[in-house]
Each structure stands twice: as structure tokens, then as C-alpha cells.
Amino acid sequence: VQLVESGGGAVQTGGSLRLSCATSGFTFDDLAIGWFRQAPGKGREGVGCISSTDGSAYYQDSVKGRFDISRDRAKATVYLDMNGLQPEDTAVYFCAARSPRLCNRDDDEYEYWGQGSQVTISS
After folding, report:
1. Are the CB atoms for 45 and 37 separated by under 8 Å?
2. By three-state DSSP, how is residue 88 classified?
3. Which of 7, 15, 40, 89 is least surrounded, with the fewest CB atoms within 10 Å of its CB?
4. SS3 for 27?
5. What pLDDT score was predicted for residue 60?
6. Can you tell me the distance from the alpha carbon of 64 to that of 70, in angstroms, rounded to the nearest whole number?
7. Angle at Cα 68 formed by Cα 67 and Cα 72, nearest 5°?
8. pLDDT band at 26 (very low <50, low <70, confident <90, very high)
9. Of 120, 119, 92, 121, whose CA–CA distance to 8 is shortest?
10. What is the pLDDT of residue 55?
């Protein structure tokens, strides 16, 4: 059972990045995948989540309209597309999976976690 993230990096304000979360050892259609982030000196916060029931996603207010979560069933991979990045988006980003198909905003409800990807936005 693994979640492997890729795609982090450093960009300037207004730039874009795509994070990928490749899953293995799961039945992909049985998972909800959440994205979380942790900025230096701060606690972990939810970014958004995509459910496997209908592919619907929700987003934290601060990223709505800028971030998009999608899933590729054939690749068993979930993506976080981040646009209009701001310095306050700088954080380590984590994907996480829970076996119920529905999303949950509480990170304690997620059983499996990726290794984290550093995203740095410079002004």
C-alpha cells in the first residue's frame, strides 16, 4: 500500500505546478484522496479532496478557483493542479487516502499518506 508523490518544486508568484499522487496496493475506486499542506511553523491544513463515488471535489476557500484536483483511473493517480501560486502557498504538500469513498476534512480520517512534496513560491 503506497502513495508516491511527485512534481513539487520552486516557482515565482503567479506560476503553476502540478503534483501527482500515484497509488498502488489499493483498489483505486475504493478511495477518497485528500491533499493537505504544512507550512513552516504551522499545523497541517486541508487543501481539498476528491471522492471516488462521483469524482466530486471540494477545496479550501483560500485555493478555490486556483487549484484543481483530478483523478486518472487508468493510472491510479490523483493530480493537484495549482495555478496563480502565491508565497503563502509555500508548504510541504501531502496526499492521503481513506478507504471510504467519501472525502473528510479531518486529516485523522486518512489512513495512508504520501511522503510529501516541497512547494516553494518566491515573490
Report:
1. yes
2. helix
3. 40
4. coil
5. 96
6. 14
7. 150
8. confident
9. 119
10. 87
